[in-house]
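wait is this the right file?? whatever heres the structure
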């Protein structure tokens, strides 16, 4: 797939207002500096409950691969079909597919997983327009805080795949890379799907951070770039089995009635 094969994104008078602020002012207030102590205590409780909801909802989803990608690509775009095939191959490899739960390439990966009989998981974020849950989710949870959502996307996965995307995808990708670099999580595979899309970013990393010593060669080599969904899924399955000892079907957790599971 080359850039010349890709249709331009059409302008539309009814297109979502990307980046429009949320009507709920509470998160803006949270990030605006100190508040009164009672409000800070109440907010801490709400954040704790959001973490607890996420832990309970996702505890039984099984081994997953988290797929990042733009919400802006429609289903007629070649990247959408690539994401759909990726979801199918990951499901065939025995993984659940976890995404941000929204439209675009997130929907494509979830849709492919469902089509192949795999588990499809979405961790949605409350935003004004662009982030609506897609209709291809078996397990779905919605979060208010970005940082809570990002913890969930990292906590339950054995690998991470970045389809083409913008600021959100880059944020999630580099946060995972930082967690691996600092050994906060294990050396899980990080796959960049779409060679032509990601090559300019890789060139920058080679010519600036790597050349100037702000990252190490192993940090750069951590990214695996491919255009093949089958190749990506095979590499991830091999890493899960050989490097992390994942045994499919033997790590099921028992539900407990007294926890209302």
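ok assuming it is, sequence goes like this
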């Amino acid at each position: 797939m080359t850039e010349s094969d890709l249709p331009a994104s059409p302008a539309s008078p009814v297109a979502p207002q990307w980046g429009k602020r949320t009507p709920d002012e509470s998160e803006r207030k949270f990030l605006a500096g100190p508040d009164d102590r009672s409000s800070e205590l109440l907010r801490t409780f709400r954040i704790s409950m959001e973490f607890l909801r996420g832990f309970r909802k996702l505890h039984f989803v099984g081994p997953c691969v988290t797929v990042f990608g733009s919400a802006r690509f429609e289903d007629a775009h070649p990247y959408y079909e690539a994401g759909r095939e990726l979801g199918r191959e990951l499901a065939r490899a025995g993984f659940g597919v976890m995404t941000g739960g929204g439209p675009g390439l997130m929907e494509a990966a979830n849709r492919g997983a469902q089509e192949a009989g795999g588990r499809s998981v979405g961790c949605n974020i409350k935003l004004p327009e662009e982030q609506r849950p897609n209709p291809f989710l078996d397990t779905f949870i919605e979060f208010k805080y970005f940082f809570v959502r990002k913890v969930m996307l990292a906590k339950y996965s054995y690998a991470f795949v970045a389809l083409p995307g913008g600021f959100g995808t880059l944020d999630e990708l580099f946060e995972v890379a930082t967690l691996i670099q600092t050994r906060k999580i294990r050396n899980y595979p990080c796959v960049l799907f779409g060679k032509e899309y990601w090559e300019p970013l890789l060139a920058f990393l080679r010519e600036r951070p790597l050349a100037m010593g702000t990252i190490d060669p192993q940090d750069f080599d951590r990214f695996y770039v491919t255009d093949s969904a089958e190749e990506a899924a095979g590499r991830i399955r091999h890493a899960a089995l050989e490097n992390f000892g994942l045994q499919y079907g033997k790590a099921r957790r028992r539900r407990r009635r007294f926890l209302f599971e």
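The CA atoms of residues 11 and 162 lie 25 Å apart. so i think its the right one actually
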